[in-house]
Amino acid sequence: MMVFKIISFLVVLVLASAGAGAEPLEGLTTGETARVVAVVDGDTVILDRAIRDAKQIRLVGLQAPKLALGRKGFKQWPLAPDAKFALEELTLDKTVTLRFGGARMDRHGRHLAHLFLPDGTWVQGRMLQRGMARVYTFADNRAVTTEMYALEREARNANRGIWAHPFYAVRRATPLALGHLTGTFQVIEGRVLETALVKGTTYLNFGENWRDDFTVTLNGKARRAFAKIALDPQSLKGAQLRVRGWLKKRNGPALKVTHPEQIELIDRRQSGN
What we know:
CATH class of the largest domain: Mainly Beta
Largest sheet: 8 strands, mixed
Structural class: alpha+beta
Oligomer: single chain
CATH architecture of the largest domain: Beta Barrel
Number of domains: 2
Order of helices and strands: EEEEHEEHEHEHEEEEHEEE
Helix content: 10-25%
Shape: globular
Distance between the termini: 14 Å
Radius of gyration: 19 Å
């Protein structure tokens, strides 16, 4: 049996789960405190007062099941009401402290913050631990991802919440498994068979036929982000990866990686073995 390896420069599987009640001490800056007066959905709350002209908080690092929220033609995701209820149980009518690990506002004028209760409970961590959300990072918001992945993995292994529902299953990196999922956010596992750099784009190919099989793409900006952690994406040939993001069609199904935290290294097999 292949021994699972862990490398520190990728946000990867970790050996012990971080406690959802313990504050991550690295990488977050403490902001202001306010009371939650409404919960919009499983990853958005409204405060009792404006902080820098904004009352709405998007819980950064999470993607909870989506409610329709009046969007025409939008089909509610499974367990979306459950995720909203879980966040209400945690935060409604409670005081929270905002902490930041990257960009502080999104284009919708919402704060992008980690939330902490007075007893130190990390709201994002508790939602992940309950299986009410997936980890969802951005190139400009990547703090405490290791802790978040550990808690997500704990819930997934226990089939809690969304992880017991086929809508949120971890997908195999094959056209058969992915072909009908274009335009959706997915978590995908597979082994990189080949890598290539073509006209400024790096390709990680998960199948024999790049025209039809699943591919991960990285542009020059993404490669520079990997270079900062001393990793060349082309060195991942032979590696078993878990990647996440929005699935597009580029020949076959494809996923664009913009930062290293979108990738978890499950196993690294040396090329040629």
